[in-house]
C-alpha cells in the first residue's frame, strides 16, 4: 500500500533483459532513502509495486516479470533514466494523497503540455480506451505513482488531463516529461 506521495527520484543504474519475459532493474537512490530496507520489501517505482531482490549501499534491484514489462513503462527504461519512487506506507503515516496499490491498470501517452506561470496542464491518452469510463473529473488518479486529481475527461478520445504545481514538477519526474512520453496509470 502506498500514499501516492512520491518520495523522490531514483536513477536507473542498470537494466538487464535476461530474456523476453524477465528483466532485472537496479536503481540508485538518493541520500538515506533505502535506510532500513530489507529483501522482500515493496517499493513503488513509477507507480508499479516491485519487490526488492538485492540491496547494495544506495542501490536496490528489482525483478520485472513478463506482465510488468507488458503492462507498464518500466520495460522502456534505459541507464540514466529517472523514476519516481515511494517506499510502502507504514501504520501511522500521513496519507496526504490517496491510497495507491501499485497495480498499474494501463499506460497513457502525453499528447499535450501547456505551461503557464505557476501551473502545467498535461493531457494524456490512455492505451486502453475501455478504461476511460473509470476516469472521473475531480477523481483521484495515480500517474507514475503520483496521486493527482483529474481535470477534464473526454471519453470519446480516451483523453484526460491533470494540473501540476511547481513542487510536483520539482520532486517528481514530471518536470522532465514531454509529448510522446509514456506514463503508468492506476485508476481509483
Automatic annotation (TrEMBL):
One of its GO terms (biological process) is riboflavin biosynthetic process. Lumazine-binding repeats lie at residues 1-98, 99-188. Residues 1-98, 99-188 form the Lumazine-binding domain. The keyword Kinase does not apply. GO terms for molecular function: riboflavin synthase activity. It comes from Ostreococcus lucimarinus (strain CCE9901). This is Lumazine-binding domain-containing protein. The keyword Ribonucleoprotein does not apply. Keywords: Repeat, Transferase.
Amino acid at each position: 500500500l502506498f500514499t501516492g506521495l512520491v518520495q523522490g527520484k531514483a536513477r536507473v543504474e542498470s537494466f538487464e533483459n535476461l530474456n523476453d519475459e524477465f528483466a532485472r532493474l537496479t536503481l540508485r537512490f538518493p541520500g538515506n532513502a533505502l535506510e532500513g530496507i530489507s529483501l522482500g520489501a515493496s517499493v513503488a517505482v513509477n507507480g508499479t509495486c516491485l519487490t526488492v531482490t538485492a540491496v547494495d549501499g544506495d542501490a536496490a534491484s528489482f525483478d520485472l516479470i513478463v506482465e510488468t514489462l507488458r503492462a507498464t513503462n518500466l520495460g522502456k527504461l534505459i541507464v540514466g533514466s529517472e523514476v519516481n519512487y515511494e517506499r510502502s506506507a507504514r501504520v501511522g503515516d500521513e496519507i496526504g494523497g490517496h491510497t495507491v496499490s501499485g497495480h498499474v491498470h494501463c499506460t497513457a501517452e502525453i499528447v499535450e503540455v501547456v505551461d503557464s506561470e505557476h501551473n502545467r496542464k498535461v493531457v494524456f491518452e490512455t492505451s486502453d480506451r475501455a478504461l476511460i469510463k473509470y476516469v472521473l473529473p475531480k477523481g483521484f488518479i495515480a500517474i507514475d505513482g503520483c496521486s493527482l486529481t483529474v481535470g477534464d475527461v473526454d471519453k470519446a478520445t480516451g483523453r484526460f488531463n491533470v494540473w501540476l504545481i511547481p513542487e510536483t514538477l520539482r520532486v517528481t519526474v514530471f518536470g522532465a516529461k514531454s509529448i510522446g512520453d509514456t506514463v503508468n496509470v492506476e485508476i481509483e
